[in-house]
Amino acid sequence: MLDPKLIRNNPDAVKKGLKNRKADASLVDRFLAIDEEWRKLTVEVDELKAKRNKASDQIGVLKKGKKDVGGLMAEMKELSARIKELDEEQKKIEQRLNDISLEMPNLPHHAVPVGVDSRDNLEARAWGEKRNLSFKPKSHDEIGKNLGILDFEQAAKISGSRFVVYRGVGAALERALISFMLDLHTKEHGYTEVMTPVLVNTKSMLGTGQLPKFEEELFKCRDDELYLIPTAEVSVTNLHREEIVKTDLLPIKYCCYSPCFRREAGSYGKDVKGIIRQHQFNKVELVKFAEPDKSYEELEGLTKDAESVLQKLGLPYRVVELCTGDLGFASAKTYDLEVWFPSENQYREISSCSNFESFQARRAGIRFKSGLPAKAEYLHTLNGSGLAVGRCFAAILENYQKEDGSIDIPEVLKKYL
RNA sequence: GGAGGAGUGGCCGAGUGGUUGAUGGCACCUGUCUUGAAAACAGGCAUGCGCGCAAGCGCAUCGGGGGUUCGAAUCCUCCCUCCUCCGCCA
User: Fold this and answer.
1) A4-103 CATH
2) In chain A, which stretches have pLDDT less than 70?
3) Which nucleotides of B are covered by protein (CB under 7 A)?
4) N or C: which end of chain A has fewer CB within 10 A?
């Protein structure tokens, strides 16, 4: 959610930001029109309520003095009825205002390169040597099937398409990756591990921005107001919803392993082979709560923490700075980490590290005290994959494959297997 | 799932229809005293929103929604959360 005062005082800047990210800038004018209507009505209602409050006090006093208050009471009865009508109208307007506010995406940070789509993204840096294979590299799903560690048929039988069964060493490798990542982030990068529910309520989904706009991307329970999380970002960020966190605890750094669930509506025919795009996948997520003036520094650190996973695994990757047009709904600035896939001869996203500034904090009511005298203020939230485990699994299969169809195991994983 | 109890400001805890946004205590801030600190004493101390250049004024908020009433923390109702007991259960 954007600061309503910012929209009021700086509508043109907001429009420009929305346009840069290909969002509907007319939302601003609609917001302003309704906002004005709301304020006008608010003044009116408040005045009537002030009148009523005064009269009610007076009635109390008069009654004590055994004076007649029948006329005044009748008058106030009418006034109350009028107030009730206006209250209802005001509530409706508030609802509309709120709906628009929740539909509005975040504004890009001013330094984010302006662009239309992923072709305008900037490569910030690249790391690692792509291995020189003396044979034609196989795809990870082929390797996995051949080794008997990935089974797509059985998964399709018990669940459907875009699911996978890990078997034997495959299951162990997936588990090893999770443990390796969590250990790295907790022991070397100072994150606190949490394990949170994967079913969350509507408020949590609104808080991080999955709702109301992206409901079709979510799995929802039929009989309960609960959704499966598409990322641990949701449950972990909402840990501090409606809280004023102690300033001396900032920055708060969490890492969380969780399975993630995405409907992938509208991605039919895209990445249908392999485990790149699944309805259910594992991910270790990094989440930070930071003071506003330090959040960009924290974004750099967060990205480096995610990168170090790839470095320790010896997987070549590059860091891409997303342009305004490619930014996610809630993000002000995002770095994608892309890992090398030899069989495709291209880099593919394996992590996305974003600073949401106060966008999620405002939706979720996450504040801290700052200044003198101390005043509660929205903090900044950040998160990034550290990393997507399934894609990491696939990248290891492809990058560490040998001509005989077997694979090497990265050194750092050996103690986990 | 069944029965009962509870939810008040940062915390504890009063308050069952009328100057109660809410007594008191703790914590916190300021001042006096002190070489300094502690103690004691005095004072201050909720949040959100709107109007206003400002001083300030007004509205809302006692888990959440709805209702009764001129007026609700207080009465009614639905919901949520927590606790106790029973049932079921990894």
Assistant:
1) 1.10.287.40
2) 372
3) 10, 18-19, 47-51, 58-60, 66-67, 69-71
4) C
